[in-house]
Amino acid sequence: MRVVITRPAGDAQTWVDALQAAGHQALALPLIEVGPATHLQAVVRAWTQWSNFQAVMFVSAQAVRYFFECQPASLTWANGPRCWATGPGTQKALLQAGVPEACIDSPAADAAQFDSEALWQRVSAQVQRGKPVLIVRGHDVYTQPDAALSGTGRDWLAQQLKTSGASAQFVVAYERRAPLWTVNQKAHASEAATDDSVWCFSSSQAIQNLAHNLPTQSWAKARCIATHPRIAQTAQALGFGKIHMSRPALADLLVSLESLA
Prior knowledge:
- This protein is of the alpha/beta class.
- It is built from ten helices and eleven strands.
- The chain has two domains: 2-32 and 180-260, 3-Layer(aba) Sandwich (Rossmann fold), CATH 3.40.50; 35-177, Rossmann fold, CATH 3.40.50.
- Strands 3-8-7-4-5-6 form a six-stranded mixed sheet. A five-stranded parallel sheet has the order 2-1-9-10-11, sandwiched between helices.
- The longest helix has 13 residues, at 9-21.
């Protein structure tokens, strides 16, 4: 089966290698470029306020990687904040960054979804009134020019914190932008829209960037796997003919592909 991986280039190769090892033909067509935030002063300032937060929530593995690039050498984990992860990829990134496992909270490994709602089920009981939680997230370049410092993303968790008597602060650690595809990449993508390939989407923004790169392409004959209902809704809005759901772990994606064979 031909499978299109749309993750950022830095993450795509691991998935391509695993899919090829499983016997699939994998093609990497990154639909998001990720890089450090243009303005890092807010990240540096957040590190100076580290002990003031009851928890630091990371929306993705990229949020972890770029935030920890500014980590001060003198940091200790004694009496520090909890680190909240939205899923196993983010949790793994925290461990690789040196965060002790005992300091990390994340959804259960068998959770139906890995998102803010699943994370809240794990951490809501520990929230302290009157003490802030820092949310580390990204900023979509060009699409949200007024959000460069606070970032873009769902504020659902911030609302839950407010309802619980706590508060949320935001910091942007990285930027996302639509990649500039080559002529060959556009040709491969157009072919994959009609040749029964399976597109794999782990981000609604990736689908929006796909529409931007191929604005006249019909997706009525295309099929995809989405890793969250909101992503599936975005694919449906673009016009994908067949949309299947999968948990975001690589092992679950392989199982989903087997069911489509």
